[in-house]
């Protein structure tokens, strides 16, 4: 669908493009069948594909600030739907609308969920890591009690197995992974797409358990304002400001957006009284600028970004003469360019060249341990997409990825990394190509069919591992208009520079033993999901059941059981697998009120080797066995107030093996118990372009007791802040305001929000 294939891509019968009265694409417009809630939203090129049913022919298109349109799907093979803006002076009641906060991608070949811009406002969403509060699929937890690093867990496995993309470009790799969730400001994001299980071969071979793609605000997005402001502060002393400005040139094909972010922690706090800061004092400056050129046959985008972040943590300074201090300093520069050529829109043929690169410099002090890493990355992708009939579509491409590392590490007292394999410099270059074919079956009436199959394969060569192949397969079956069945299976690979992407381990006194600085990881992932959308009491009930199985052939095992005062990193020798089963239901009980209930069960185990060389298949530590979630949203008439609340019950799990203290007690419990977390927010929309929000996080005030082991002796051999499984901070209250200055065209029209 145009240049950069959106996650909304799927086989469908009713397809087209939504434009405004000046011919510009409208992004995020809702397209649905009249009389139903079955629909989709337009992608970054204004295009859509809509699941079709035999008795439905009228397509209703709506967008905030525009008059609705109803079009007969038989009017053309490829629909071009033009929406006209509502005058800025018209009465407010005439432009009210309710954008969906999240969408299960009904037509997609993959099991995907889209969190929209409206969904991101359900919480403060200061950054990407805080954007999954009301989602059962993704867990976000602190990796330790000292650095503030957060990690995603998907399908019961570490976030390193989830491929992170920014606008379909691989990003935040290796060194950037521990803190990457904090590098994406929430107000910058237009949407987040979460795909579970094995994904398309287009973006590479690394999505082993899933994929998260972030779309930033862009000039071509019709809802983009001249200026957007978001100011935030909380009871823990954190302040944050976000601003973005968009400009359209005299030539409407050109546009530019500038995004600016700043945050700072003004105070330190130690609520549990262990002498250590509960959270680091952090300061971040983040700036991004992009330019776009869009025409009927050519698209061009170029952008650059700079980030500086400093984190200061450790013991509270004052009376202590030799405090244990953790300092992390990061400088990051990114750049990208996209070129796309389109022809024969009805056949969706396009050729795209994508180039990107980054330089990430991270200087780390953990007490007297000094560990600096610089990572340089380069990425190139050439993609062709087209179809020769409505049922047959093909995507082929070439790609290249480079990762280079420069390291410096020492300890003023003694070595802390026991490995001759950790070289001061190393690199990996991987290049290859892929082909992905999509076949759709249509019924006798030419309506969108009951079946889609999408096989894909890519072959790559790595200077470290040689040649390897990545086969993947997706299938979708829609037997009725309210049932959707998906299945997927495929292979995934990645290179683990294990210490670089888990550098928080150095915050403890554990000594690190590594077989090698690089580990090859390889898995098979298979899964299936069933979606039901029956009409119950006149309203649509959305119900999903899904199961995924991940089986590793090769894996970098991080073993914290063999020795409670060390961490051993070695190649898997035995089985390693994960079973995940999830149920989710969503229902609009009455106008403005929606409730979502979800339950997920996780069984994740790995083979560990003890000090005597004995192997045992054991539950992965610090992984909850289940999660139950209830999320409620209510908007009052005319959208003056919005209420959001999410209660999550996080299940129990295993701790790494403890050791016995001199008094005969254990250093920590063998298991942690289930715990609840409640987040809530109230938003007051004062005017069309001004709103206030007040909320709270962890309102149950549950915190992990003694998250830092041996906090009274940080220079000893038992100090360990990595035994983290629950919240470190107690309840927190926040408040903020959002303001936007709508964009006006030369005809005096503006966009309502």
Count of discrete alpha- or pi-helical segments spanning 4 or more residues: 2
* CATH topology label: Maltoporin, Chain A
Shape: globular
Low-pLDDT stretches are: 1-12, 86-99, 745-753
Rg estimate, integer Å: 26 Å
Q: Please identify the structural class as seen in this structure.
A: mainly beta
In the CATH hierarchy, what is the architecture at level 2?
Answer: Beta Barrel
- Could you tell me the strand content as a percent range? over 45%
How many E strands?
A: 47
Please give a handful of descriptors for the protein shown.
753 residues, mainly beta, Maltoporin, Chain A, 22-stranded antiparallel beta barrel, 6-stranded mixed β-sheet, 1% helix, disordered N terminus, disordered C terminus
What is the compact description of this entry?
The chain starts with 13 loop residues before the first strand and ends in a 12-residue tail after the last strand. 1% of the residues lie in helices and 54% in strands. The chain has a 22-stranded antiparallel beta barrel. It has a six-stranded mixed sheet with strand order 8-9-15-16-13-14. The protein has a four-stranded antiparallel sheet with strand order 3-2-5-6, with no helix packed on it.
């Amino acid at each position: 669908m145009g240049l950069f294939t959106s996650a909304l891509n799927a086989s469908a019968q009713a397809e087209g493009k939504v434009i405004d009265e000046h011919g510009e694409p409208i992004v995020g417009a809702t397209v649905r069948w009249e009389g139903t809630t079955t629909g989709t939203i337009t992608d970054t090129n204004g295009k859509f594909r809509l699941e079709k049913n035999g008795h439905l022919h009228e397509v209703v298109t709506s967008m905030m600030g525009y008059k609705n349109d109803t079009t007969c799907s038989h009017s053309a093979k490829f629909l071009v739907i033009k929406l006209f803006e509502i005058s800025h002076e018209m009465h407010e009641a005439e432009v009210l609308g309710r954008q969906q906060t999240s969408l299960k991608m009904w037509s997609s070949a993959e099991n995907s969920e889209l969190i929209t811009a409206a969904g991101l406002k359900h919480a403060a969403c200061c950054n990407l890591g805080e954007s999954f509060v009301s989602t059962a699929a993704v867990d976000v937890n602190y990796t330790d009690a000292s650095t503030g690093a957060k990690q995603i867990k998907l399908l019961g496995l570490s976030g390193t197995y989830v491929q992170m993309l920014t606008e379909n470009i691989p990003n935040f790799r290796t060194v950037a992974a521990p803190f990457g969730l904090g590098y994406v400001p929430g107000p910058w994001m237009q949407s987040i797409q979460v795909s579970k299980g094995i994904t398309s071969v287009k973006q590479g071979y690394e999505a082993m358990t899933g994929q998260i793609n972030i779309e930033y605000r862009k000039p071509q997005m019709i809802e983009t304002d001249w200026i957007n402001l978001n100011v935030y502060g909380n009871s823990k002393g954190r302040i944050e400001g976000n601003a973005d400005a968009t400009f359209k040139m005299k030539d409407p094909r050109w546009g530019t957006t500038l995004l600016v972010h700043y945050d700072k922690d003004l105070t330190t706090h130690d609520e549990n009284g262990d002498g250590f800061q509960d959270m680091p004092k952090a300061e971040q400056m983040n700036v991004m600028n992009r330019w776009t050129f869009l025409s009927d046959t050519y698209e061009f985008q170029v952008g650059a970004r700079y980030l500086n972040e400093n984190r200061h943590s450790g013991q509270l300074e004052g009376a202590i003469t030799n405090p244990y201090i953790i300092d992390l300093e990061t400088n990051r520069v990114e750049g990208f360019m996209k070129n796309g050529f389109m022809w024969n829109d009805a056949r969706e043929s396009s050729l795209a060249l994508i180039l990107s690169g980054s330089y990430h410099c991270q200087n780390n002090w953990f007490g007297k341990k000094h560990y600096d890493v610089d990572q340089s990355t380069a990425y190139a992708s050439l993609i062709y997409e087209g179809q020769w009939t409505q049922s047959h579509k093909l995507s082929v491409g070439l790609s290249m990825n480079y990762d280079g590392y420069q390291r410096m590490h020492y300890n003023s007292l003694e070595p802390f990394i026991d490995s001759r394999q950790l070289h001061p410099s190393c690199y990996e270059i991987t290049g290859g190509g892929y082909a992905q074919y999509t076949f759709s079956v249509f019924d006798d009436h030419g309506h969108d069919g009951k079946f889609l199959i999408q096989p894909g394969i890519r072959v790559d060569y790595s200077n470290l591992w040689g040649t390897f192949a990545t086969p993947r397969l997706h299938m979708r079956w829609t037997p009725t208009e309210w049932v959707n069945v998906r299945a997927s299976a495929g292979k995934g690979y990645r290179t683990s520079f294990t210490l670089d992407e888990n550098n928080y381990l150095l915050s403890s006194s554990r000594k690190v033993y590594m077989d090698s600085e690089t580990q090859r990881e390889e898995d098979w992932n298979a899964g299936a999901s069933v979606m039901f959308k029956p009409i119950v009491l006149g309203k649509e009930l959305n119900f999903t059941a899904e199961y995924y199985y991940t089986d590793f052939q090769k894996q970098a095992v991080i073993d914290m059981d063999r020795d409670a005062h060390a961490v051993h990193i070695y190649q898997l020798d035995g089985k390693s697998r994960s079973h995940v089963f999830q149920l989710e239901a969503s229902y609009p009980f009455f106008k403005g009120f929606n409730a979502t209930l979800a339950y997920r069960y996780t069984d994740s185990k790995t083979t560990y080797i003890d000090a005597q060389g004995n192997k045992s298949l054991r539950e992965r530590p610090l992984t909850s066995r289940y999660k139950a979630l209830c999320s409620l949203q209510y908007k009052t008439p005319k959208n003056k107030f919005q209420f959001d609340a999410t209660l999550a019950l996080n299940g129990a799990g295993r701790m790494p093996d403890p050791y016995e203290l001199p008094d005969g007690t254990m250093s920590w419990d063998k298991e942690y118990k289930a715990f609840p977390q409640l987040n809530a927010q109230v938003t007051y929309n004062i005017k069309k372009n001004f709103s206030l929000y007040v909320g709270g996080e962890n309102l149950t005030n549950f915190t992990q007791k003694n998250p830092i082991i041996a906090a009274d002796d940080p220079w000893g051999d038992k100090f360990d802040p990595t035994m983290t499984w629950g919240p470190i901070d107690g309840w927190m209250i926040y408040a903020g305001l959002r303001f936007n200055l709508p964009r006006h065209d030369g005809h005096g029209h503006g966009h309502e929000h």
